[in-house]
Amino acid sequence: QLGTVAWTFNGHTSDVNDVAVDEDERVYTASTDGTIRKLDKNGTQLWSKALTIDLRRVLGVSVDINHMFMV
Hints:
Blueprint: E1 16-21, E2 27-31, E3 35-39, E4 45-50, E5 62-63, E6 69-70
Antiparallel strand pairs: 1-2, 2-3, 3-4, 5-6
């Protein structure tokens, strides 16, 4: 049996390529739209970072114990 959907997020304008979750259940998403977004555990966006033109497609994201994210 599969679980239930807790929430959905429609803030990106293109595909989401990767997702990371920190120890406080905050979610980081990396998208082909050139942004990384941070969401709280309820799916509310906390911030969005647009990357430079050279990094237009964000293919991956990870987060460490200090809540520092890497692309």
